[in-house]
Design brief:
The N and C termini lie far apart (60 Å). By secondary structure, the chain is α/β, with parallel strands linked by helices. The protein is built from 21 helices and 18 strands. The chain has 3 domains: 176 residues, Rossmann fold (3-Layer(aba) Sandwich); 132 residues, Rossmann fold, CATH 3.40.50; 175 residues, Thiamin diphosphate (ThDP)-binding fold, Pyr/PP domains (Rossmann fold, 3-Layer(aba) Sandwich), CATH 3.40.50.
């Protein structure tokens, strides 16, 4: 077999059976090998940023890496923004990036570039495989690096002649069972655990901030129990990769996006315990305002970082605080009434809370227009909430796509702002091609509203009409219904609360992908 055939067989035999692709000439032998290994599910994306964002969403739901197939340095560069988001989410992603044949490198052809330099921006592992016989073992090294802990982006560069040359050697495995677990990691510091436990038992004002792996499963339950028993405030990072929430689950308050709100949430805290979370900082610098959001005099106790053994840290902290299981209050089931009247961010969110099905996955890039969605769905049936971890917009639709591929049978709801949707709306075509159960709620306020807000907050001179024009999405008005239909989806527009409720109910009940464009006023 050639190198490409051996590579795909090795990946499938070690649990990587999905590849989000946007290939070019240098990757054609990989594409051809898909017919030889039908167990590899190739998912075609029309833009590299869709492929990389989909791999992120897939990993967040499955805990396993998907592969991406990208064309040379420019293709990798086109996918970089969503690889940045994946890096911040600690999602395991395996990039396979084609390169010019080794024999072709001296000619400096038009597409030749320094792929490794591009990859290092987001990857913990970067390696160019220079031998067909060693390609499969190089792939397993990249796979191990991606899985971690912590999960990360790994990039394997594959020259075209390494793919097409015979002599490839597949390394057998037993499928997903052969994947490293991604658990374990550095053992917790017993001294830090003891100090954190003493701080939580001291009676002084304390907060526990959870992120990453601590926002799901037993870790979430245990940290909620510890917070409830010690009187600490339980907070989640502003943008967690995946947060389990809804009726019957622990109540977790997310730290505010605006530094002013986050400062109020943390005001008076004497101890901040970090569990797989970073110490809070302002997203941007603002004149005369602090970047570090930890209150003056507050002691910070980091009991688990991204590469640490989270299970051991959480169990150790629970033992030291002597907290019984199940003491944390659970979110009551609350289903809002279907709204009527004007369609606003509030009434839209109310309809979402009334209709969100059990087991739903919400990919949230609603930005300013979606500000009320989390509150309105707090008591909805149990669901997962995926957020914009790295702040690079254009994540929402690709992550929804990847989540749907990784969790078939579950309804995915993509809350998507109009400006952000335009970055990666090619994802709609792939959703239609794959027949995925993704409902996009397109929040159309005809504006980069968040930037209107930031323009006022950064202390710039009073903006005039030319400045405001740079943040306005009218002239011409974008017709998302026609765009979605042109990409193969059912789509409808809603301009009242009743219309939106009806269209959302229809979309959620209909198999396959659809778009509901909601015309809402700007909050800014």
């Amino acid at each position: 077999m050639n190198g490409a055939q051996a590579l795909i067989r090795t990946l499938v035999d070690h649990g990587v059976d999905t590849c989000f692709t946007n290939p070019g000439t240098s990757e054609m032998h990989f594409v051809a090998a898909l017919d030889d290994v039908p167990a590899m599910h190739g998912v075609l994306a029309l833009f590299e940023g869709v492929a990389t964002g989909a791999a992120d969403g897939y990993a967040r739901l499955t805990g396993r890496p998907a592969a991406t197939l990208l064309h040379l340095g420019p293709g990798l560069g086109n996918g970089l923004a969503n690889l940045h988001n994946a890096r911040r989410a600690h999602s395991p992603v395996l990039n396979i990036v084609g390169d010019h044949a080794i024999s072709h490198r001296p000619y400096d052809a038009q597409l030749q570039s320094d792929i490794a330099t591009v990859a290092r921006n987001v990857s913990t592992f970067v390696h160019s495989s220079e031998s067909t016989a060693e390609l499969s073992s190089d792939a397993l090294a990249a796979l191990g690096a991606a899985i971690g802990p912590p999960g990360s982006v790994a990039t394997l560069i594959v020259p075209a002649d390494v793919s097409w040359t015979d002599g490839g050697v597949a390394i057998p495995g037993t499928g997903a069972a052969d994947l490293p677990s991604g658990t374990g990691g550095t053992a917790p510091d017993e001294g830090v655990l003891a100090t954190a436990a003493a701080a939580l038992r001291s009676g002084e004002p304390a907060a526990i901030m959870i992120g990453g792996r601590a926002c799901t499963g037993k870790a979430l339950d245990t940290m909620a129990d510890i917070a409830a028993a010690t009187g600490a405030r339980l907070l989640a990072e502003t943008f967690p990769a995946r947060l389990e929430r809804g009726a019957g689950r622990p109540q977790v308050e997310r730290l505010g996006y605006l530094a002013e709100f986050a400062t109020m949430q943390l005001e008076g805290i004497a101890h901040l315990v970090l569990v797989d979370a970073r110490s809070p900082v302002s997203f941007f610098a603002y004149p005369g305002k602090p970047s570090d959001l930890v209150p003056d005099g507050c002691a910070v106790h980091r009991v688990a970082a991204a590469g640490d053994d989270l299970d051991a840290a959480v169990a150790g902290l629970a033992a030291l605080t002597e907290v019984p299981e199940g003491v944390a209050p659970r979110q009551a089931a609350v289903v809002p009434e279907a709204p009527t009247g004007t369609l606003t961010s509030q009434t839209l969110s109310q309809a979402l809370g009334a209709l969100l099905p059990e087991g739903a996955i919400v990919s949230d890039e609603g930005n300013t227009a979606g500000i009320f969605a989390a509150g309105a769905t707090a008591g909805a049936p149990p669901h997962d909430w995926l957020t914009l971890t790295g702040g690079a917009i254009g994540q929402g639709l690709p992550v929804a796509l990847g989540a749907a591929v990784g969790a078939p049978g579950r309804r995915v709801v993509s809350l998507e702002a109009d400006g952000s949707a335009l970055y990666t709306m090619q994802a709609w075509w792939t959703m239609a091609r794959e027949g995925l159960d993704v409902t996009t709620v397109l929040l159309n306020n005809h504006s980069y509203a968040v930037l209107n807000m930031e323009l006022d907050r950064v202390g710039a001179e009073t903006p005039g009409p030319r400045a405001r024009e740079m943040l306005d999405l009218r002239r011409p008005t974008i017709d998302f219904v026609h765009l979605a239909k042109g990409l193969g989806l059912h789509a409808a527009r809603a301009e009242t609360a009743e219309e939106f409720t009806d269209e959302l109910a229809r979309a959620l009940a209909t198999p396959g992908p659809s778009v509901v464009e909601a015309i809402v006023p700007s909050l800014m």
